[in-house]
Here is the input.
Amino acid sequence: MATATLNEFDNTVIDPAVRPPLMGGENSLSSITEQVASLAERQHAPRAWKIAFAISTSLTVMLFALIGYLIATGIGVWGNNSPVAWGWPIVNFVFWVGIGHAGTLISAILFLFRQDWRTSINRFAEAMTIFAVMCAGIFPAIHIGRVWFVYWLAPLPNSLAMWPNFRSPLLWDVFAVTAYATVSAMFWYLGMLPDLATLRDRATTRIRKIAYGIASLGWTGSSKQWRLFEKAYLLLAALATPLVLSVHTIVSFDFAVSQVPGWHTTIFPPYFVAGAVFSGFAMVITLMVPARQFFGLKNLVTLRHLENICKIVLATGMMVGYAYATEFFIAWYGGNKYEQFAFINRALGPYAWAYWTMVSCNVLAPQLFWFKAVRTTPWAMVVICVLVNVGMWFERFVITVTSLSRDFLPSSWGYFTPSLIDVLMFVGSFGLFFTLFLLFCRFLPMVAMAEVKSVLPESGGH
Amino acid sequence: MSTITPTQPVAPAESEIEVGGLLAEFRSAADVVSAAKLLRRQGYQNLEVYSPHPIHGIDKVLNAKGSLLPWGALAGAIIGLTGGLWMAWWMNAVDYPFIISGKPMFSFLPSLPVAFELAILLAAFAVFGGAIALGGLPRPANRLFRIPAFARATNDRFFICVDEADAKFQTEKTKTLLQDARSVRIESVPVIDSRESKLPRPFVLVAIVLSVLALIPPVLIAKARSTTSTLPRLSFISDMDHQPKFKAQTTNSLFADGRSMRPQMAGTIAQGDLRDDSAFYRGIQEQEAAGSVSGDSEGNVTFLTGTLTANGVASIKDEQPKNVPKWVTEFPVPVDESLIRRGQQRYEIFCATCHGIGGDGDGLVTLRALELEQGTWVKPTSLHAEPIREQPVGQLYNTIANGVRKMPGYASQIPVRDRWAIISYLRALQKTRTATADEVPADVLPNMRELN
Here is the structure.
């Protein structure tokens, strides 16, 4: 990967007089169609794809087998136990939801700010969002213990004549995550409609014709459809923007509305949102760098795209670091003994190892992005971004576990140890994520062709 | 330039084909825009432009109207917001009042997150559904798809379709006009045979059958919910309804006698068996408890069997003699100094508040109640009163355990042994007022002095 940069053109040079091109090489409408669509049209999957798919599907099968085991046996198979009743399932939930933030952010917020460079990566990031939210949704659903009563979370009339509690953040969370998953899926699908039609029109086999024919709903690209499409896309972006900010805010309420020291703080909503964007963008890099290499998309997803993302990672990483510092300051300034203890315990207590892993990965590692050389070296970005994701997992672990394991009464303190099932399920969730992702890369348009076409200079690239 | 649709094996001569319109292909967005402008200037109304990406400015050329989508979004958001707030209010404050730490049943801020999410969700549904539906989708069959060249509309070519319904449409004239506008290829659009655009027969049949079948489960559920049944309810997941345990009065192959209930082992006492000691636990003599037909063990039934007089007051007195239990007269526990001291301590905790340290009915609660002139407060009986002094210990025990008239029972606070301890102290307390000098031990007597 290190040599890859040599034959790439460089659009990262900043010359205020010249607008750097969004894409590299000679692109035309048909070359873009050809390049992107042919990836989804290959007869035989490349060997590397097959290997990766075999591994990730086996992990997925393992995940579902373990879920079956969990449902049949009970949640005692996890390490969760009093006083740490939340444990890994909630840590994993917050971790995955966080990752699911970059997609909508790229698609919606950057769209509203007319950042045209997003067109090359938004489809990719949106797919990542949806798959991450799917992984996230699994954990709280099985964490409720009696999964067959999962519908109790929804306000449905039932024979108990009971309704859920609308003042509980856990209920807010159900609404927020469901709304987010649904809106992201609609946004993704609507954006993909024209590209699915392209695949339909290029399809050669009957199965592909029927499958893409159904999926593209009969899209023709008439100016009426485009008009509605653009309006709808703009409106969905405008709706998704507050939504994406609200989701992690509400996830943070799960913690902040409770009384537990270390959770009961008003900084949580912005701090969680920044963390989510941070981890989401890190994940985009982690997936994008190998994918553009592997699928030969370097002219569409240029170094400049990657560099921009690195800058966002750096900025959000510093927000997260600032939040860590503020938490300590407020604990001291607030004068609450329990709060002070909670934070000293985080940094110096039995989970100090986790705390300092978090700080080094989230605050220190991204500092390397100050150097342009690092920002433009793909392998270096991947290493840093993997570290960031490790760090962000630890952040959720530190928040959830340290606060619960030592709250008010020393007599009820404990030390949390995960079980093997905990670990395997987390690994399995990566299997699910990558399975979906590989299927996406194989059968769906990875780059938003129509959007890229509309920013080509020959279409008057607006 | 002839149209050969895949379903027509023999292509009829061109002149015979009915033309549904013309489809002209262009190389670039600029070409298609200028062609559309030209046609509009000529007065064509029924035009549509097809392109692989949105073309800016085309809406103005085609004189397209603004869309309803923003209004749909607004309506969705309003319904979501009010619906969310309504749910929080109706579900938690009206239909199933949720009492949380005495907070108000409904408050705005905590109801907002759900309302907000619903507002976004419904607005997004409106936008998404609106874009699909107003765009005429889903539409799997389209006459343009019968023209092979049209496949490039989603790739790199631009098209204009002029419908023959347009007032200005004349096959040849329109064709020349399009050619002049730099069209690279012109195709005639087939007229759709109305038969073809319909769903095939088997599809319709299967769809009808399936939708009828789909109605069966909801109908069965609705019936089950509105009728009664003698059968046990269906439980798909039994939770803890059926536990793997042996119940009373069932058989069990594990034991020789085949019963799951086990007889008592020699030398053990079963839970609650100690209560059989009636004198100790109830202050009532054994034979009375065993032989009593009226079941009057606690002295409660006395009240229950009492008759009501005309003015509504229970006439207890009439019934009392018949049902007076045989009170224990001797302490059922050995009385020594430590028991009395324990009794004193318990008395001062539990009884003195009302009855006073000295037992004269002047406890602090009583004094306060009198000071406030509380009409409902009954002054506690003086424990030194003649009838109380005469009462057998069993009756005093019963008073502590079950209460008497206005005095509540203390069974839940004072364990059995402590009740006897209190009585032993009570007896000592009473003695302080009535004892004569010769009842006092000789070695204590010199230390006593005359009080009055």
